[in-house]
Amino acid sequence: MRVTLRAVQKSACLTALLFLAGIFTLAQDTEKKSSEPAPLPGCESKEITAGKEKGKQERFFPAPLPKVKEALTGALAALEFKVKKDSGNQIEASKRRHVGVFVGSGGETVVLRLAEAEEDGKKGTRVTGETKKGFVGRAGQKSWTNAVLDQTSCTLQKSGT
After folding, report:
1. In the sheet where 109-119 sits, what is the strand order?
2. Which class is domain 36-158?
3. Which of 3, 10, 35, 74 is 20 to 30 A from 68 (CA-CA)?
4. CA 59 to CA 128: how far, in whole Å?
5. d(CA 80, CA 122)
């Protein structure tokens, strides 16, 4: 059996391509798992993930402002955000940057404004939020506002508020 140099080169190229394809697939799976943080205990039954929404998102919670603010802070921590500014009725938090399939993923900033409100005769808190994306890594960034508000809602329901 005679093996030519050309056959060896083709085999080596094919092996390298398969190896790189495996690494790429593994990187995608790892990024999917790591980009969606685990929900808080008791909120596992509801899928809480980032989305593609644009602009401001608003949600009314029939709970006092301090209670909602506490739940928001917990939701941000659970979704791996670090609070950068907390000035009374406004919270600004950002997500750590990481390298994944999209270089520079992460780095989003969520700005949340809280205000006392009334809806359908119930007093509570209205939260208006928006995810701001940076220029670097924009393709890999997501909108986290609804995920934060969903996590907050679950936390408040779990606490009986």
Report:
1. 57-61, 122-132, 109-119, 90-95, 81-86
2. alpha beta
3. 35
4. 7
5. 32
